[in-house]
Amino acid sequence: MAAPAPLLVVLLGLTLLPLLFFPGAEAGEVGVCWGTVADNLPSPAAVVQLLKRQSITMVRIYDTDRGVIRALANTGIKLMVSLPNEQLASAASSPPFARQWVQDNVAAFYPTTRINGVAVGNEVFDMAKGLTQQLVPAMRNVQAALAGLGLDGAIKVSTPVAFTALKKSWPPSEGAFQDDIAQSVMRPMVAFLRQTGSPFMINVYPFRAYLDDPQHISVAYWTFQPNDGVVDPDTGRRYYNLYDAQMDAVRYAIRSVSPGSVRASVTTQDAGGNDDDILLTSSEIGCSDWKIPKKHCKNFANGLIAHTLGASSARAKHTSGLLDSVGAGAGATSAYIFALFNEDKKSDDSERNFGLFYPDMQPVYDVDFVHGSGPVTPAPAPASSWCVANAGVGDARLQAALDYACGHGADCGAIQPGARCFSPDTKVAHATYAMNDYYQRHGRASQACDFNGAGSIVYQQPSICDPSQAASWCVARAEVGDARLQAALDWACGHGADCSAIQRGGRCFDPDTKVSHASYAFNDYYQRNGRASQACNFNGAGSIVYQAPKIGNCQL
């Protein structure tokens, strides 16, 4: 297993591939790896329409296919292109080659197509070991070519690293890279990523870990379902899903070769603007019919999406636990799922059925790219769970946790003198109230109840005032733009929200603005779904508030 590391991009799917982070993002983002090793795939134009219908906002391709790049023009969908391993040596040895490659394959299409990243090579340490020492020079030359064209601010350079680059991933706190690359390659690579503000990309394969060790890795643990968690014996940190453990192992490994932090995302940066680590991941889901039942793949995919869209935000605002001990900030993690389609010409038979969609664009199983769907929560804690203070850590640590929770979004008005939950006036009671309020507001993500070991998740309601019943509403975030608001508005109205009041002539039609209509639809969906925090995510377009909003003459 692995742990959160500085600046990471995780690639996910039934196999996870690199994740991306973007400046100002408060939560992660989920995209897909669009492979084309097949003879029966739909046209690029048809695929783009599929991406739009599914609200998929970023894709990674393994080449620079002009048909694909042109099809994505004027869509706003973020695209990561790739310089293949076969061209790595030329890019490393010849700056003129790198400049021409960037001119022909990136600059020629930008900004009409929203290219935001270049992946230099792919899993070089595994797939092209002879090129290992040329990897970082190639990355530098491509970066220099982008800088020469004034594109280095918008387009970042990284390289997808296979999870096998770690020689140890459990316990996460002992995560370390293989000896033959740790100092010679990973150290200068991390320095380059820090210097250029680029993400660290890691390809992870949670389902493969499960298949290799099903006696110790449960289905629930790798698919984001409720489970008891697994404890890192060195730090005492409890992990409720394999993905978080793997991310922490990567973060510790990065920290071991470079004490500073790396902005590890091609597309996102830490919400606070600090020099924090960001991970971009890619993941295989692994749903070959003969190995993994589709229901597990569906749970994993939707759990990953919900976790990335919801729990990343909680983690980005939570500074206790592992990230403190590593010395890294809690940057968001974004992910690509591998792969968009089943690809019948893959040389590895086991990867031919990793797609989310069949070549006819029918889903292999249902995946919700806006929220994640089904019973999966952002972190696999059961719906009826609470966060309580651990009296054994002492008053000083409880006070620190209490101060953090109250200062980072928890509503602590009820535990002020004279308020309804002030009594009993003890540190553990007040800390429990504040920590639980923070935990509930962050979607019951398991890491939102860590507080550097001062919090524990319980499954019977504690005899303390329950802040989870406080009134709350979901409103639209105007800053995400009309396109994203419209997509989320359409989704809410199509998935149970009653939007009749915002139709022309309806009582809440005025003011006729995107943000007003989206707020109405978002809130209706949120209330109908029990005010679950993930029901107000809408791919980052929604926000929970605790004072009743008023839109025109409409009181929500």
UniProtKB/TrEMBL annotation:
Keywords: Disulfide bond, Glycosidase, Hydrolase, Signal. GO terms for biological process: carbohydrate metabolic process. Residues 1-27 form the signal peptide. Gene3D superfamilies: 1.20.58.1040, Glycosidases. It comes from the Eukaryota. InterPro entries: GH (IPR017853), Glyco_hydro_17 (IPR000490), Glyco_hydro_17_plant (IPR044965), X8 (IPR012946). Pfam families: Glyco_hydro_17, X8. It comes from Panicum virgatum. Residues 385-467, 472-556 form the X8 domain. Belongs to the glycosyl hydrolase 17 family. This is X8 domain-containing protein. PANTHER family: GLUCAN ENDO-1,3-BETA-GLUCOSIDASE BG1-RELATED-RELATED (PTHR32227). GO terms for molecular function: hydrolase activity, hydrolyzing O-glycosyl compounds.
